[in-house]
Amino acid sequence: MTITAAEVKKLRDHTGAGMMECKAALTEANGNFDEANTILRKRGLASAAKKAGRATSEGLIGARLSEDRATGILVEINCESDFVARTDDFKQMVEDVLTEIEKAGDAAGDTLLTDPSGPVQKRLALGIAKLGENMAVPRFVRYAGKGYVGQYIHMGGKIGVQVEFAGVTPDVAARSEFAVLVKEIAMQIAASSPSYVSRDAVPNDLLEKEKAIYRGQIEQMQKETPTAKPKPANVVDKIVEGKLGSFYGQVVLTDQISIRDTKMTVADVLAAASKTLGAPLTVSRFTRLRVGEGAQ
Question: What's the CATH superfamily of 5-51?
Answer without folding.
Answer: Ubiquitin-associated (UBA) domain (1.10.8.10)
